[in-house]
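Let us practice reading a record.
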Amino acid sequence: MSRSLRSTSSILLLAALIWGSTVPGALGAPENAAVAASIAPAFESLARAFEAQGRGSITIVAGASGKLAQQIEQGAPYPLFVSANEKWASYLEEKGLLREKRPVAQSALVLWWPQDTAPSLDLLKDPQKRVAVANPDVAPLGVAARDYLQSEGLYDAMEKEKRLILTSDILGVALAVKSHGADLGFLAQGTAKKLGGSWASLLGKPQQYVGGLTAPESSEVIRDFWSFVTGPEGGRILEEEGFEVARP
């Protein structure tokens, strides 16, 4: 069975250093935006630019898409939701809990580590190398990583060798590698660019981020922020953060 990374106070401190003021899974004011962890740092930049224009304050709540969707279903006050795939956005839409759904951005899946030279994909076959993967049950990028490893015939062997380090979300993947709990990790390319280090790009369809409004009567601030995110200025910021702007 795959091993899981346990959170500690030092890990939480490292999270703050890597991700700035992003709040992993915390509740808050009605102006919260629940955002997939892999794109949360980019949304922090979007929120800062939005606030700098005097248009309102947004708190970014980061987490695995599936967990955030389940929290919204249970009544969590997240009037804006952005998933790392279509699945969880559609899940809420089908339950009448998401409207104005649209694609936001996309990013390739990469194999990342905090070293200067790009990792060889052959390292995945090294029995001494531990690889961090977001939990596929709730994290879309974890699904993409699992699918890639299965397509290469590696997943079952890595599980048997106990080299897969399952984390709650992409934040956990970054922390696992940064804290030496794993040697490499699967991330979105945009996240890898934010963290530095180096990475190897993997073949396959880019991961698409899809979101929408969850509250029946969203506040003016949230509606304005969603328009800002999906507009030209938001697109420019997303590209600066290493993501491609998705087109409907």
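A brief commentary: Confidence is low (pLDDT under 50) at residues 1-17, 21-30.
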